Amino acid sequence: MIKNDASTPFRLVAFLTLLTLSVNVTSRAGAQSPGAQASPTSATAADQQASDPFLWLEDVHGARATEWVTAENAKTLAVLQQDPRFAAFYAAQVKIGEAKDRIPYPQIIGGRVYNFWQDASHVRGIWRTTSLTDYTRALPAWKTVLDLDELAKTEQKNWVWLGANCNSPSRKRCLISLSDGGEDAVTIREFDLGRGAFVADGFVLPHGKQSATWADADSLLVAREWEPGLMTASGYPFVIKRIARGEPLTSAREIFRGSKTDVSVQSLGLRDGQGHHALFVQRAPSFFETEKFVLTPAGPRKLNMPLKSRFRQLIAGRLLIQLSDSWNTGSATFPSGALVSVDLAAATKDPDHLRPTLFYASGPRQSLQGVAATRDRLIVTVLDNVKGRAFIYTPVAHERWTTRRLRLPDNSSIELAGADQTGSAVFFNLSGYLTPSTLVLADTNTDALVRAKAETPRFDASKDEVEQHFATSKDGTQVPYFIVHPKKMHLDGGNATILYGYGGFSVSLTPGYDPTIGKLWLERGGVYVVANIRGGGEFGPAWHEAGLKTKRQVIYDDFTAVAKDLIARKITSSAHLGIQGGSNGGLLMGVEFTQHPELWNAVDIEVPLLDMLRFEKIQAGASWVGEYGSVANPDEATFLASISPYNNLKSGVKYPEPFIWTTTKDDRVGPQHARKFAAKLASMGIPYFFYEVTEGGHGSGANIKEQSFTAALAMTYFTRKLMK
Questions:
Q1: β-pairing verdict for 318-323 and 327-328
Q2: Cα–Cα distance, 240 to 215 (Å, whole number)
Q3: pLDDT of residue 364
Q4: How far is it between the farthest Cα atoms of the chain?
């Protein structure tokens, strides 16, 4: 659903993308904690939906709702923007965001490096290229391929860059996705890399939630809304058609049809550096399950493999498949979390009888993370107790592989940042909470390492240090968390602390350099904590599945346990503790806000889900039933009613004053949740701050200045609440 977005100033997690502790606690006002209230039944869940007084705020662009947003923004800005600290925070954040010496993260296409870049002179951004050799120099000779500011001006469009698919047979043609204001819905247009221009009379797919795959040089496989209403309940396509160059969309030939009850249907093309290739269709009956079909001359043929699995790479004619469930083939059993290899030719010939071989199996405190391929090598990154490792695999005869660990620095976050499928180069991004990101170029043939780029330090980290601790959750589970704090921190409960969490969709939170937190929080003496709670992927599929659907309360218990551990260690206290999370993490914030209002003095709720009785009816919410459950299921409805933040606000409870922000253009989670939550707080006389960004999709803004503005508001809010 939701994943980390490097363009946002905070850790905001897409893709597409909840009882209390047994200890009796009271709020600061002496009222009963809402977590101790009786849980609503499924019958009352339906009643609560029917009597919702704020449904009018779900009309995203309605006149009444727009007027309400304008008034709410004005009230919030009158306080936070006028705070004497805001201007300095905003200026510092813009300086960070527009710095010329930021790392230009690479995309390798046909042996060349491409990069999308925004700064003060390129507000919407430019797509540019240079050679692999030149890229490693301090000042590469960039050549602009596409200027989005010029394009938007010429076409009078509000274009936002959402990526380029250049997996065409020639690697010279790309499908560029352009969004109106940052929405997930896009316009897709064919681009010629050699000419540096859109292809005259090339492929153009009008605005919509859609996806396209290169079938060959002159045809595409496209999933989109081919006629009004031909979309799933989640708002995604379920019909794939093949369209040939020069044909109108009306002439496209259907090759696969799913069902309106599916989450989505998509095509996928895999090619390796040695010329092997195949086309697939993936039908998702739920968010975490997909049926896979290989396209043959006789049509789609279903592959006999687990629903909870996904393709990761194709190399040397071998399909690499990651398992999120065990796979018993009759002759062998492969564990959940493993990576297995299947011969592509054999799978295409006989998809009913696949013969996988084990490639990688995770240990109890390990998790498979990244998988990438050069021409002759496979690169795998894993987490070992939330610390990064990288390995290079070489295919040899009879489905066997040799392996070696790449000697990258220990105790750091290691992320794949780009690989050359036509050569031997792969980039790794190394970072830590106090260590600026370093981009390392590795030659997978020789293991030679070159420091290609290093980010300039954005804050003084000399007075801080990082520790990893473990909190004991309600059920006894040991939950790890990282704490970044001053070396001379006093254990008196007075340290201003931000605790960040996500807890869902198998998303792993690893140590990373965050200039915003560093400059605007750590330098001012603040403490920053990241909780690796269940629901994430830090320890493989089991860590995620422990918190699915009606088991979800363990996620919130884990987060609460970390907070209580911080307080027990006298690192902080409720008066100086704030929490932060976005999207699914915004739901986490809402639950903690309603279940444990006595624990926090600041709650930053970002682009959140909050009405869990109506989430299936809002934007892409129906696609996340696999994570949250459904109100159509009585047991799940009862549970959702018991944890839904919007439905569990209670009169007479002393809540902390939250900061709730969202974006109008968010067509994934939608602004409806945040709006309604704020409106209900207002109706109950509970103080809050609300802010809605006009653009940016499921993020904090469409450009650096918008993102910086939102970041400055949040940091002003935290400073006001936690630092005295």
A1: unpaired
A2: 12
A3: 85
A4: 72
> How many CB atoms neighbour CB 666 within 10 A?
27
* Residues 6 or more apart in contact with residue 535 via CB below 8 angstroms: 502, 503, 504, 505, 506, 543, 544, 546, 547, 552, 555, 584
The structure tokens listed for 30 are 């002496």
- Give the residue, 21 or 529, on which the prediction is more confident: 529
Catalytic residue, from 122, 544, 673, 698: name it. Answer: 698
- Domain limits, the chain: 34-82+494-509+534-554+568-722
Q: pLDDT tier at 409 (50, 70, 90 boundaries)?
A: confident
Which of these, 433, 533, 526, 405, lies nearest to 478 by C-alpha position?
533
- Which pLDDT belongs to residue 387? 85
> What is the structure's pLDDT at 49?
60
Q: What are phi and psi of 119, to 5 degrees?
A: -155, -170
Residues in the chain: 724
Distance of alpha carbon 444 from alpha carbon 392, whole angstroms: 7
Q: Which two tokens stand for residue 395?
A: 């295919």
545-597 pLDDT per residue, tens: 999 999 999 999 999 999 999 999 999 999 999 999 999 999 999 999 999 99
Strand partners, 341: 320, 357
Question: Edge-to-edge strands of the sheet including 449-454?
Answer: 413-419, 425-431, 438-443, 449-454
What Cα–Cα distance (Å) separates residue 406 from each residue in 142, 189, 411, 645?
Answer: 30, 39, 14, 46
What is the sign of the dihedral through the CA atoms of 364, 365, 370 and 375? negative
Q: Which pLDDT does position 412 carry in this prediction? A: 80
Q: What is the mean pLDDT of residues 466-472?
A: 97
CATH architecture for residues 34-82+494-509+534-554+568-722: 3-Layer(aba) Sandwich (3.40)
Pull the structure tokens for residue 603. Answer: 């709650």
Q: Choosing from 583, 623, 700, 708, which is the catalytic residue? A: 583
CA 182 → CA 8, 178, 187, 299, distances in Å?
A: 12, 8, 11, 36
Tell me if residue 583 is catalytic. yes
Residue 698 designated active-site: yes
Please state, in angstroms and as integers, the Cα–Cα distance from residue 102 to each residue in 117, 456, 461, 518, 585, following that order.
10, 7, 18, 16, 27
pLDDT > 90: percent of the chain: 89
Main-chain phi, psi angles of 126, to 5 degrees: -125, 145
